[in-house]
Structure formats: C-alpha cells, structure tokens
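Tokens as discussed.
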C-alpha cells in the first residue's frame, strides 16, 4: 500500500473521506508555516512595537527568550498533529481530547486568529508597498487611504490565487521559502556593508527605549512585556501545518516535523535579521521620529543610500505578499473544516469545494471579514503609532494562542490515556505542556492591555483612535459564541462529524 493510501486510510479512521487534493510534499507543508511566520513580515511590521516598548533589549534578548517558549508550544502541537492529521487541526484535537464545548471555543478562537493574521499580514504588505511606490513615483503620497486601497487589492489577489491556482500554491510555498532565505541574506548583507558605521554591542544588548507614553517606573513590569508582541506575533500561524495536513503526503510525520522546524529556523533567522536592524540603527533620533516613531523604515532611510533602502523595502514587501497568500490558504482550510462539522452559520456553503477540490466560498468569506476588521486602520492615532494595526496583531496573537492552549491543556489532563502518533514527546510532555499553558496565559493578559495612556478610558487625553480594540473584538466574539453555545449550539453541536462509513475492523481505538 502506498503512502498516499496510508494517509487516506488514516483520515478515514478519523472520520473523513479524502476530499482535498493530497499533492503536497513534506517540504511544502513546512513551507506554508515558514511562509506564514515570515520573518520578512513580522520583524519589519512590528519592529516598532518592540522599539517603542523596551528598545534594543526587547529585541536582542526578548526575541530568543520568547522564541524558546514558542518552540515549546510548537513541540506540544507537533505531538497532536502527528496523532490527528486533519484540516480542522487544533479544533478537532480539542473536541476529541475533551468535549464538544472545547472544540466549539477552540474552533472559533482559531478562526478569529487566522482571519486577523491574514488581515495584519496583508495590511503590513500594503504599508510597505505603499512606501516602496512612493520611492519610485514622485507624486505618490503614501497616505492611510492609499494603504487601505492597496490592502484591499492585495487581499483580492490572494483570494484569486488561492481559488484559481490551487495546484500552484504548493509550488509558490516552496518559492516563498527560498525568497525568505535569500531575501533575508540580502537584507542582512546590505545592513552589514551599506551603512558607514554601526552601533556598539553595548547599545544592542543593553540599550533601552520608552516611546509608549507610560512612565519609566512601569518599564520592567508593563512596558517591556508589551514589546514582546514583536516575537509573539511574528512566530505564529505555524498551525498551518495541521490545516493542510489532509493535503500532505505522510502527514503524521511530515506535518509534525514541519511545524516545529518552521518555528526553529524562523527563530534563528529572525534573530540575526533583527540584530542587523539594531546594529544599523545609528541615528536613534531618526528612528524615534515623532511622525513614525519606531518604524523600521527609519533605520533604512537614515543608514542606507536611497537605492539600498528601496531594495530592502521591496524585498520585504514581496516576502509579505507570499506570507499573506499562505495565510489565506491556512485560514480557508480551517474555515472549510469547521464548517464541514456544522459549526458556522451557512456551513453547507462554506464547506463546499469546487471541481478542483478548492473551498472557494471559505476563501472569499475569510478575506471579506479580514477587510472589515481592519477598517479602523483608516484613522490615525494621536501619537502616530499604528494602533489599529497593532490591535489586529493582538487579536491574531490572542485568538491563535488561546486556541493552542485548550488542546494542550486537554492533552496534559488526559495523561497516559492519550494515544500518540509516530512523533511524540514521550514522558517530557508534562513539563513542556505546563510551560506552554503558563506562557500563553501570561501573553494573553498583556496583549489586551492599552498600548498608550491615551487609550485608557478616563485619561485626560483619551481618544478612541488610541484604543487597543483587541479585547473589545475578542471579548465580543467570546461573549457571542458563549451565549450561542448556552442558548442553542449545545443542543445540536456534537463536535467533528463523520463523513465516511467504516467497517468495524477499520475503527480506531478510542482515545479516551
């Protein structure tokens, strides 16, 4: 029996027929998570969050420390995808390891996070493309309105690519990996050899900065942790390895391996890239420019020639375009899988695949919602920081990591009753799962907090454009799905639905 037959048989044991096209290699599976993590996206677009909230130490020390915690989370999820390689991913795991209510909340949190990731990546891509165009076209003014229009165009392009180039997607994922590897290498080389001078080791590893507006007395307990959003946001979306596992050959091993490896290699490459940023940040006043405080582009324009700065902007914009394409793929597969089990209103429409085995309706719906939740980005915050963008980023981090927490906790609770797949943590699962649970809980608290004093209700300079609306959006959704569950869904939602009949000898052993 071929490996493809083994994959289809395992999927049947989990209750599903092979509807999606299983044509992805193990490398393509790794590539989609590596592309979604995209150090050419997250490190560029959220560099300012760390610079303004902590400065160099939030980056030089914060990145490797937080990356280590995220890798532990990745190990925990890799064990689960090895046991249950389905497109539903973490939602399916939560429902099977716990009860339908666990799957219900996990699925909605995961879906919110994936849509927010898609929105934030494509808006970041639009921002950098907006700047790049202004460097080529003298009359091009990179306004917020033009950035939003570009954002809408990029979202539409990603939807069209995912709809009409379904067989090309896995190839483009592979191209994306090499673009990120070679692109990062080129950017680092430019930042090493382009500037006339560099910062000292002391500045890079001990320097601090506070552009948050909060007092320095809050630096260690509040301001610096807010800077860690850079790492926590950049290294996320790696659950994509699970969402495309039904399209991956040898998924029980290759999806697990792709998940943790995408984190590991991104952590190393991202740290080197960020150190290159810091060493090139010789004009601190320029980086702290009140018109765009902490914006990474200020480093390039102050330390490099106009031509080299434009090259860096262009490399990043293209990398972010690849990243957004991968985000739409992952988001649409999660939508398809969740709808397949009847959890989304109009589920028959969103779980439908076309003749090319592509969930077209799920792709369109996710992109439309991503556009809508980013509408506040049309309005500028008083301190010029992209607060609306960071709010969408926070929504992505909170939604995804809370969704990760639920199945990790359930696996920890299940203990030795859990039946692992070929990739397993063995006895180390207890320590690693506990670390993952605590880290996610702490992160989720910090990233719903205000980013500036002006965003705190009751402050003399309070304004809605400075509000971190992530807790409002996530809270509203949690309240909504909680009430929905209590008033209705608990009577009809039973978790994953079987779409295939099996003979008794094919039935898997019960997990719990």
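Sequence:
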């Amino acid at each position: 029996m071929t490996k493809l037959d083994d994959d289809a048989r395992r999927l049947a044991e989990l209750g599903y027929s092979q509807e999606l096209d299983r044509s992805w290699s193990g490398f393509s599976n790794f590539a989609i998570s590596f592309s979604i993590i995209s150090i050419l996206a997250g490190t560029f677009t959220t560099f300012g969050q760390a610079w303004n909230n902590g400065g160099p130490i939030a980056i030089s020390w914060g990145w490797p420390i937080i990356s280590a915690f995220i890798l532990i989370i990745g190990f925990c999820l890799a064990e689960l995808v090895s046991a249950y390689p389905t497109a539903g991913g973490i939602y399916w795991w939560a429902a099977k390891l716990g009860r339908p209510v666990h799957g219900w909340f996990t699925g909605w949190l995961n879906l919110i996070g994936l849509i927010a990731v898609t929105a934030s990546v494509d808006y970041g891509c639009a921002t950098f493309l907006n700047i790049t165009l202004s460097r080529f076209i003298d009359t091009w003014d990179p306004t917020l309105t033009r950035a939003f229009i570009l954002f809408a165009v990029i979202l539409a392009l990603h939807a069209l690519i995912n709809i009409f180039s379904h067989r090309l997607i896995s190839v483009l994922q592979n191209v994306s990996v090499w673009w990120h590897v070679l692109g990062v290498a080129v950017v680092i080389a430019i930042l090493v050899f382009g500037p006339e001078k560099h910062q000292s080791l002391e500045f890079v590893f001990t320097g601090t900065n506070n552009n948050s507006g909060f007092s320095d007395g809050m630096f260690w307990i509040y301001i610096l942790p807010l800077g860690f959003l850079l790492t926590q946001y950049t290294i996320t979306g790696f659950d994509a390895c699970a969402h495309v596992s039904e399209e991956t050959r040898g998924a029980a091993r290759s999806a697990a391996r792709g998940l943790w490896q995408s984190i590991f290699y991104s952590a190393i490459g991202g740290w080197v890239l960020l150190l290159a940023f810091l060493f090139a940040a010789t004009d601190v006043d320029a980086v702290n420019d009140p018109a765009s405080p902490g914006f990474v582009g200020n480093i390039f324009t102050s330390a490099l020639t106009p031509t080299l700065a434009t090259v860096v902007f262009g490399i990043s914009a293209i990398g972010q375009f690849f990243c957004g394409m991968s985000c739409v793929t992952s988001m649409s597969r999660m939508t398809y899988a969740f709808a397949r089990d009847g959890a989304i209103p109009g589920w028959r429409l969103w779980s439908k695949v076309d003749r090319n085995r592509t969930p077209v309706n799920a792709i369109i719906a996710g992109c439309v919602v991503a556009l809508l939740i980013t509408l506040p980005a049309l309005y500028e915050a008083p301190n010029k920081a992209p607060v609306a963008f960071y709010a969408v980023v926070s929504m992505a981090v909170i939604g995804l990591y809370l969704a990760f927490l639920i199945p990790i906790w359930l696996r920890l609770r299940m203990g030795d009753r859990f039946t692992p797949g070929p990739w397993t943590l063995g006895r180390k699962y207890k320590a690693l799962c506990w670390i993952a649970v605590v880290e996610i809980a702490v992160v989720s608290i910090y990233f719903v907090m205000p980013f500036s004093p002006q965003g705190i209700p009751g402050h003399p300079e309070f304004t809605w454009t400075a509000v971190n609306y992530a807790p409002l959006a996530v809270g509203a959704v949690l309240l909504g799905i909680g009430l929905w569950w209590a008033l209705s869904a608990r009577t009809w939602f039973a978790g994953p639905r079987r779409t295939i009949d099996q003979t008794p000898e094919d039935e898997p052993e019960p997990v719990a």
